[in-house]
Specification:
The complex is a heterotrimer of chains A (116), B (93) and C (146). With 116 residues, chain A is of the alpha/beta class. Chain A contains 4 helices and 5 strands; from the N terminus they run βαβαβαβαβ. In chain C, helix 1 (30-43) packs parallel to helix 2. Chain C has 5 helices and 5 strands; from the N terminus they run E-H-E-H-E-H-H-E-H-E. The chains are: A alpha/beta (116), B alpha/beta (93), C alpha/beta (146).
């Protein structure tokens, strides 16, 4: 059924999200089915036009855009969190699907985890 | 034995965003095992009262909480291990 | 009485666990909760396939921890448990290198002044976690609380 990797912290301020992405890409590299769910403040990973040069970190925008090519099945974003953080189709990167992070969603995956 | 679909291991207090995120994903056959600071949710929140809830006795004791009248079944680590095997899935929040 | 032949019987396999620790010692309770869980797992007759340290959890593999004498020395406690039960303990290489946990090989590779990985922990990639995920009956995560 597949693993759901959940990211609920925003990018760049902490590393938990990057470490979650590494887990997802590792699973995909081993041909294991995996999807990403961005919830809570984590939806801010999906905002377009991240210019990270000033804080000396690599932007994750390209990694996320490349995720399907690397075998990540879906990039999901919690609808309510997107509203809270003023994110919509125009301001979000391509490929993110809005969903509700509830029991029905979770039941579709055999495992779900955070990186930390 | 009742079916246990998902065991949610929760070590966050109600003040942490993950507490309500966890509760938002609970299904009817799920249970919550409170560990570490998560046991404090039994004192400060009513959100768990309708949920099948367990709490690590060692963490209750450390925080000065009595095992009585908590609205949760106190468990030891051996029982936590059992719960992880009984559940179809385990999620640590 | 019939003897079993070489084909599999209907005997249930021993449940096996992969434990993932992402919280550091002395910053979180994760190493303690995980060790208490691990001891109960083994006492119940189950197998622990592997303990995987990720993120801040790699600090549990430090050979340079000097804990106060009246506090539990978590790296040593864990090392003793792993050795007693011959359970592999792996620190994720990406997490470890960033946080300054290195073994002899990485010390040479990066020309660092020292190495500090506590035996019997080893350093390896996320592939070991993926493998544990596939192979073990359960993979249980011990994150830092709040």
């Amino acid at each position: 059924m597949g693993m759901l990797i959940i990211i609920d912290q925003p990018p760049y301020g902490t590393w938990a999200g990057r470490e979650a992405l590494d887990m997802a890409f590792a699973l995909a590299a081993f041909d294991q089915p995996v999807s990403l769910l961005f919830s809570g403040a984590g939806v801010n990973w999906l905002r377009k036009a991240q210019d990270t040069a000033g804080i000396e970190q690599k932007s994750v925008e390209k990694n996320l855009a490349a995720a399907p090519i690397f075998g990540i099945k879906a990039i999901l974003a919690d609808r309510a969190a997107c509203e809270r953080y003023n994110l919509d189709i125009k301001t979000m990167i391509d490929g993110a699907q809005l969903t509700d992070a509830n029991a029905e969603l979770m039941a579709q995956y055999s495992q779900a985890t955070f990186a930390g | 034995m009742n079916r246990l679909h998902t065991l949610h291991i929760l070590n966050k207090t109600p003040d942490h965003p993950r507490f309500s995120e966890c509760l938002g994903t609970l299904g009817p056959d799920d249970a919550v095992a409170l560990t570490e600071n998560g046991v404090l949710g039994l004192v400060s929140s009513k959100a768990l009262s309708s949920v099948q809830t367990y709490a690590l006795a060692a963490d209750l004791g450390a925080r000065g909480l009595s095992e009585d009248n908590l609205g949760a079944a106190p468990i030891d680590y051996a029982e936590l291990v059992n719960l992880t095997l009984q559940a179809e899935r385990v999620i640590s929040w | 009485m019939t003897h079993s032949t070489t084909h599999a019987t209907t005997r249930t396999a021993t449940p096996s666990f992969t434990l993932v620790i992402t919280g550091a010692p002395y910053s979180s309770q994760a190493p303690q909760t995980a060790l208490s869980f691990a001891k109960a797992t083994v006492a119940a007759g189950h197998t622990i396939d592997r303990v995987f340290l990720y993120g801040d959890g790699v600090h549990l593999a430090s050979a340079l921890v000097a804990a106060p004498s009246d506090e539990t020395h978590w790296p040593k406690r864990w090392a003793a448990f792993l050795e007693e039960h011959e359970i592999p303990g792996v620190a994720c290489i990406a997490s470890a290198l960033r946080r300054g946990l290195v073994d002899g090989d990485e010390q040479k590779r990066y020309q660092l002044g020292a190495n500090n990985l506590l035996k019997p922990f080893t350093i390896a990639g996320l592939g070991e976690w993926v493998e544990g995920n596939i192979k073990s009956t359960r993979t249980i995560y011990f994150h830092a609380g709040a």
